[in-house]
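Work package 3, deliverable 3.1, input record:
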Amino acid sequence: MKDVLLKITESSNWVVIFTLLILLVWEGYAPYFSFFRQKMKKRALHAARNFTLTVMNAIMTSLMFIWIWNWAADFTTVHQFGLMNQFALPAWGKALGVVLLFDIWTYWWHRFSHVVPFLWRFHRVHHSDPQMDVTTSNRFHIGEIFISNVIRIPLIMLFGAEFWHIALFSALMFPVVQFQHANIGLTPTLDRLLRIILVTPHMHKVHHSRYYKETNSNYTSMFSIWDRLFGSFRLSKDLSKIQLGLNHFDSDKKQSLGGMLATPLGKNHTLPKSENKTELEP
Ligand SMILES: [Zn+2]
């Protein structure tokens, strides 16, 4: 079992690239929303902007954090520190335990990002995309990724994670995150079956709605159980009517690379909550 998990981890980059290509083709031939139909130039510009943020985050993470995470994981393993080291579990059991712990943490981190004004300033870069597709899956402000990367250091120690456990979590989570953001639709039956376990395109389109009650739902990244367990699971009666994005952030200036990087400094800092009268009612 450990060998299988290690294989998944080793092939993670290829899985992410393969998933990206499949979803780009799927979105091209059978998009759920038609915002890019017959608009190849617009789609390419949108992708280029989102990919630029992705590359910036990847460079920052690999230069500043991979070695620290590695050090934290080694320290934890050598000193048998952290939660998963307190149980006599097989190697694969520890690995899956760490994956579950990181998935719960990601749920709560995401939820905090919606209710803490300082965090929402950064997180709204991700939500402000009115044309959400697979390229949105890594459209995050570099500040948001920096803060979550820093928090990951004590979490590695607290959870008792080995470095390959963290790589396994990323390898499993990224394809699910790409899939849930893609501008695709599954049949209602397939979406219903899949969301028993994982986050589906239906669930995550609801999260990216600009209607605040929908924005503040479906926070989980991989396993749908956390939304059901913590009371934030929500579906839409008519998904095709959902309006993606955020009010005040639709202009080309806000959607440009500079506009996205400046978004945390912008004037409109309202959180997605009921007091916000500018939010659209469905
Ligand atoms: Zn969110």
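Residues 110, 114, 123, 127, 207 surround zinc ion (CB under 6 Å).
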